[in-house]
Specification:
The chain has 569 residues and is mainly beta. The chain contains 7 helices and 39 strands. The relative contact order is 0.10. This is Lipoprotein LpqB.
Length: 569
């Protein structure tokens, strides 16, 4: 994990050192509005005449949230020399809040301030966000210029309070294909909200490629010479596509259409390359043309819910439990399991025999299962996209991937390398793959981590670019899983925030309703319309559509029971 580093300054000190950030407990997840081409102009923030230096400095940081014209608004608060020297193109540091304290040694026409805050993240190139822990501290020099205070020296880069990020920027989803070209993978980016060319901005970011962290999980479709040339006569135009195959053109079109549609930009979309339609037979495109690639799972409606209780699995339908008519429902030795929408399953079962241990088994409804591997303990299994393989952690440390050979039918199990941050080597109690299989969430010694799944060779996988999320929870995470929209639902042992929503990029952790929940929350699950948790007493559910009554209620059919909720996906 990249360590916090010294920030270069013009004879001044600016550093990120070890610290902690605060966790928002009452902010709502951001909801994107439909795209409106009549975007409000950027706010006008200019130095106020006669403004006292500490207040003028705070105004400068507010103006720094406006990136237009190379931070023209913020530069108005600097002396001409400082404006020429200030490099605002470094990564943007996000802090929880900024404190400003006067330093000794000032004069009538010159003063110094210490600016400090807890770092919560970094906004990188192209608006990609990554969580970061540390402390920001810098010395700012100010001087009187023609009777008005101006900033005379400051560190390179931009510093924003988290509230300014939320007020002035909006997160949008870009989409790139996984390594096999089968699944669209989300790449979340933050863009300045008051821009008039949102569609072109999104397309330009797609042309630049995925964020650095996501690169190991996605494929490159376009040649180096391909470029976006703008919006002309109702068409988004491109050049350099002469050598691009029809298959890759179709994939690229799917990226563009789903990226624009998810931003609220209505179609149909006309895409042209080198003076002709990008797709010869389809000059105008909509999401219906790429429906099978839809990344918006929430449009699929309700999912099938199962429950594991007393060693057997039952289907929950209409408030009643129906034990499965197979070994999952009959043998009463299931410890944990995962089930797909197509009826494939993987389960950890008690090995029996009085010697302890467990067995990982897999199968499909209506078919016989087979034993994959044995160990003392396993985490809950997790399927790759389309049930291509199943992952689990054996004995708390060995990440295993089991896959059936298409040629021989044999099941091969390999150990996955996980490149964890320096100093992280604890017990892995949870491992869950995202819907696309490009990301993984892990709970290691009560801390929440996400990583990127890299395809290094045919059949070979690794977990790379692992980053801790919601570090403020300090080892009190118990359970975690992916929600259909790509965010995380997290269960903790903290009574004041037993369940949280953590955004896919780690940019925020939002405490959900506490009503009727008794920590610890040992299991979590999410369907397109419902959240499920298992607390100290029972299995509870809450609509994830912003219900007026945010009270977790027992799942019909499971009243008074503690069970593992399993949402088939």
């Amino acid at each position: 994990m990249r360590k916090t580093a010294i920030l270069p300054a013009l004879g001044l000190v600016g550093a990120l050192t070890a610290g902690c950030a605060t966790l928002p407990s009452n902010s709502d997840p951001h909801v994107l509005r439909p795209f409106n081409s009549e975007v409000t102009a950027a706010p006008v923030i200019t130095p106020e005449a006669g403004r006292e230096p500490d207040l003028l400095l705070r105004d400068f940081f507010s103006a720094s949230a406006i990136p237009s014209s190379d931070y023209e608004a913020a530069r108005a608060f600097l002396t001409p020399q400082a404006s020429d020297a200030w490099d605002a193109q470094e990564e943007t540091i996000i802090v929880d809040r900024l404190g400003v304290t006067t330093l000794p040694g000032g004069q009538a026409n010159r003063t110094y301030f210490n600016v400090h805050g807890n770092v919560v993240g970094i906004l990188g190139q192209g608006g990609s966000y990554r969580p970061e822990r540390g402390s920001y501290e810098a010395t700012i020099e100010m001087e009187l210029v023609a009777g008005e205070w101006r900033i005379a020296s400051l560190p390179a880069g931009v510093v924003l309070e988290r509230t300014e990020l939320r007020n002035q920027y909006i997160p949008f989803n870009l989409y790139f294909f996984d390594g096999q070209g089968q699944e669209l993978v989300t790449d979340r980016r933050w863009l300045f909200s008051r821009r008039e060319t949102l569609p072109s901005a999104l397309i330009s970011l797609i042309m630049e490629g995925p964020s650095q962290r996501l690169q190991p999980a996605v494929a490159s479709i376009l040649p180096a010479g391909a470029s976006y040339t703008g919006f002309e006569d109702g068409a988004y135009t491109f050049s350099g596509f002469g050598g691009v195959s029809e298959q890759d053109r179709t994939r690229f079109a799917a990226q563009i259409v789903w990226t624009l549609a998810s931003a609220g930009i209505s179609g149909p979309f006309t895409l042209e390359a080198d003076g002709a339609p990008l797709l010869t037979d389809t000059p105008k495109l909509t999401t219906d043309d790429f429906g099978e690639l839809s990344p918006l799972v929430q449009t699929a409606g309700e999912s099938t819910l199962y429950a594991l209780s007393d060693g057997s699995i039952s289907l929950i339908d209409g408030g009643s439990l129906t034990p499965l008519d197979n070994e999952l429902g009959k043998e009463q030795n299931v410890i944990t399991a995962d089930i797909t929408a197509s009826g494939r399953w993987a389960a950890v079962t008690d090995a029996g025999g009085g010697g302890g241990g467990a067995s990982l088994r897999a199968g499909a409804f209506g078919e016989e299962s087979r034993e994959l591997v044995t160990a003392d303990t396993f985490t809950r299994p997790s399927f790759e996209s389309k049930a291509a393989a199943v992952w689990t952690v054996a004995d708390g440390t060995r990440i295993l991937r089991s896959v059936q050979s298409a040629a021989t039918g044999d099941v091969n199990t390999e150990e996955i390398v996980a490149e964890l941050p320096e100093g992280v080597s604890g017990n892995i109690s949870v491992l869950r793959l995202s819907r696309s299989g490009a990301r993984v969430v892990m709970v290691i010694d009560g801390h929440l981590y996400t990583g990127i799944v890299e395809r290094r060779a045919p059949g070979e996988r690794a977990i790379v670019n692992v980053v801790e999320y919601a570090a403020e929870l300090g080892g009190q995470v118990v359970s975690a899983d992916w929600q259909p929209d790509g965010s995380l639902i997290v269960g903790t042992s903290v009574s004041v925030s037993p369940v949280l929503r953590v955004e896919q990029d780690g940019s925020s952790a939002t405490a959900l309703s506490v009503g009727n929940i008794s920590a610890p929350v040992v299991a979590v699950a999410a369907s397109p319309n419902m959240l499920y948790v298992t607390d100290a007493n029972a299995v509870l559910q809450l609509p994830n559509t912003g219900a007026d009554n945010p009270l977790w209620r027992e799942v019909p059919g499971l009243q008074g029971e503690r069970a593992l909720p399993i949402v088939a996906r």
